[in-house]
Amino acid sequence: MATLVLHGVFRVQVRDLVRVLVWFLVLDAVSPLFPRESGSRELKELNGIWTFRADRSPNRNQGFEDGWFRRRLAETGPVIEMPVPASYNDITQDSTLRDFIGWVWYEREVLVPARWVQDQGLRLVLRVGSAHYYSMVWVNGVKVMEHEGGHLPFEAEIGTVLRKDPGSGCRITIAVNNTLTLQTLPPGVIMHFNDPTRYPEGYFVQNIYFDFFNYAGIHRPVLLYTTPRVYVDDITVVTDFSDNMGFVSYVVSVGGASTSTVKVTLMDKDGQCVASSTGLTGVLKVVDVNLWWPYLMHQNPGYLYSMEVRVTASDEKSTYEDVYTLPVGIRTVNVTKSRFLINNKPFFFNGVNKHEDADIRGKGLDWPLMVKDFNLLKWLGANSFRTSHYPYAEEILQMSDRHGIVVIDECPGVGIKDIRSFGNASLSHHLSVMDELVRRDKNHPSVVMWSVANEPAAEMPPADFYFKTLIKHTKDLDQTRPVTFITDSNYARDKGAPYVDVICVNSYFSWYHDPGHPEVIPIQLNTQFENWYGKYQKPIIQSEYGADAVAGLHSVRASGFTHRVPELTMGSEVNAVFAVCQDPPVMFTEEYQTAVLRRYHGVFDQKRKEYVVGELIWNFADFMTAQGTCGSKGLTRVSPGFTLRVSRHGNGAGSALVKLRLLTPTTNQLSRTGLSNSC
C-alpha cells in the first residue's frame, strides 16, 4: 500500500485519499475552475484596448461621487486608450500616471452573442484574471462584484443583469485602486506631506516594504464564458502510485442542482481511455502509469493525463449537460529529515526566482514573453522556480505543468515588516488569500510547495501566533504539499521556522553583508547551513542568493589576440577574446557576480550531500524597482534597475556560468540525458 509522508506530520494511505480531499471543500467559491471551452462551454476574450481614466481628484473619490459607472466613461471627462492586460504605469509618457496612487477606471462595451442572453439555460460569467489591488466591477451600471488582492482571479454571473434589458448591450466598468495599507498583502503605507514650502497641497506618496515596482492595473485576461445552468463547479484531485499502478482520487462539486449524474473519464496523451468512474467522488486506477516527472529527471517530463468530467441533470423544463476537462499529472511529494522527494526520488531545486515584469506591459500577462522565459529556463538547465513574491498567472502554471518545471507557489505576503501588519485584520486577510490561492492552484502537479511569506519580520513576538495559525490553516487546506515561508531572520530567533516543513533561507554574503568580500562566503554560508539544520533538522533550500551586475560592465582589460576558451564558448569552435589583464573584480561587474556565484556553488555542492535540497538564484531576469538613491537595502541595488542573471536580449558571464553548472551532471541531480543520478 502506497503512503504519503510529509516530515512526520501525517501519513495517508491510498484508501484514505478521498477523505483527504474533504479538506479542500471548506474553501469558499472565490475563484473556480480555469475557464476552458468544451462542447457545453463557450468563451469570449475581452483583451485589447479599453477606455481608461484616472481619478485625479484630491481625495481620489470623484468617480464614485459623480457615478462614473452609471454612464459611458467618455461622458465623464477626458479618457485615454489603455491595453488589457497590462499595467498602466509605463503605457504613457505621463510621469504622474506612472506613479499614480488611487482609483483608475476601465471601460469596455462588449457585443454579447444574442443566443447567450436569450438562452435561459445558460450561465453567463464575467471573469477577471487579476487586477491590482482592490477592484469593483459594474455591468450596465449595476455592481456585480468586488475583490481585494492583486494576484488572484474573481468572477460573477452576469446573465441576470443582461437579461433585464436585452437591448441595452453590455458595458463593463472596472475601478481599480492600487493603494496599499499595513493590512494589505503586500503591505504599504501612505505618507502625507504638509509643508507648503516643500510640497504642493495634498501631496502624498505610497511607501512600500518590498523591492519591486508597485505596478497596477488589470494584469491578466478579462473574459466572458458560459456554462449550462447545471455545471461542474469545482474538481479536486489527489494522486498517488504503487509500483506501476497510479491512483487519481477525485471530488467533483456540481452547481445548480441538488442531484446529478457524474461520469469521469481519464485519458492518456493519445486520447485513449485508461480509467473511468461515476459519482461525485472516486478513485481512478491507472495501469502502467506514466508519472509526472520534473524536467531533466526523466526522458518524458511533464506527462499529463486529461480527466473529462461530464455532469448531467434534468428538471421539469430541460436536461442539462456540462463537460469540463482537467489536465492531471500523477505524482507524489514527500519530505524527510534531509530530502525533498518527488515520486519517492530525491529532487534538488536547481532553479531561479522570477518576477512577472517586462518593459512597457509591466505585470501584464504576455504570451511571447512567457514562452521565451520557459525557453530560457530550459536553456539554463533550470528545473524549478519560485513565484516570488506573489501568485503568478494560471497560464504560467499550466506551462510549468506541461514542461515539467517545478514551482514553489508563493502568496503576496512580502514586506510584512511593521508590527501592525501582524494584527487580526492582517491575519484574517492572509488566511483568505491562502484560501483563494490553494483553491486556484491545488490541481497543478508542478506546484510542490506553498510559501506563505517572504522575509517577514519573523523575530517579532506576534510572529509566533501569526505563522503558527497561517501555516496550520494552509496545511488544513492541503494535506498533500509541504508549507514554508522564506526567511532572512536569525535562525535562533525566527518564530515561524518551527512550523514549516522545509527551511527556505535568503542570504547575500559579500553583497548586502560584507560587500566586496567574496572570500567570506564559504565560512558564512557553511555556518548558516549548520546553524539552521542543527536547530530544526529539516531540509534547507537556499531560496535567494546572488549579486547585482550591470550587463557589459567588466573589470578586465582585453588584448587583441584570440584564444579558444571552451568554458565561455560552451564547447563551440568560436574563439573568445582572451583577457590578459584581469583586474580584481569589483561590485556590479559581471566578474564580481561570477566570483560570488562560484563561492556559493562550492558550498552547495558539499551541503547537498547532507541536507541542502535546493538553490534558487536571485534573479532570473531584469525587473523594475522604485526610484531612489539607495533603495531599501542600501547602495547595493541599481535603482531604478535590475538584478541580472539572464537578459532576454543577450546573456552575460553570470548566466553562462549558471548554465554550465545546471547542465553539468556532477553538479546537477540529473544528467543531460534525463536519467537520474543516484543521491
From TrEMBL:
UniProt keyword terms in alphabetical order: Glycosidase, Hydrolase, Lysosome
Any one Gene Ontology cellular component term annotated for this protein: extracellular space
Gene Ontology BP, a term: glucuronoside catabolic process
Location in or out of the cell: Lysosome
SUPFAM superfamilies: (Trans)glycosidases, beta-Galactosidase/glucuronidase domain, Galactose-binding domain-like
GO MF entry, a single one: carbohydrate binding
InterPro entries membership: Beta-gal/glucu_dom_sf, Galactose-bd-like_sf, GH, Glyco_hydro_2, Glyco_hydro_2_AS, Glyco_hydro_2_cat, Glyco_hydro_2_CS, Glyco_hydro_2_N
Subunit structure: Homotetramer.
Protein name: Beta-glucuronidase
Native species: Sphaeramia orbicularis (orbiculate cardinalfish)
Organism lineage string: Eukaryota, Metazoa, Chordata, Craniata, Vertebrata
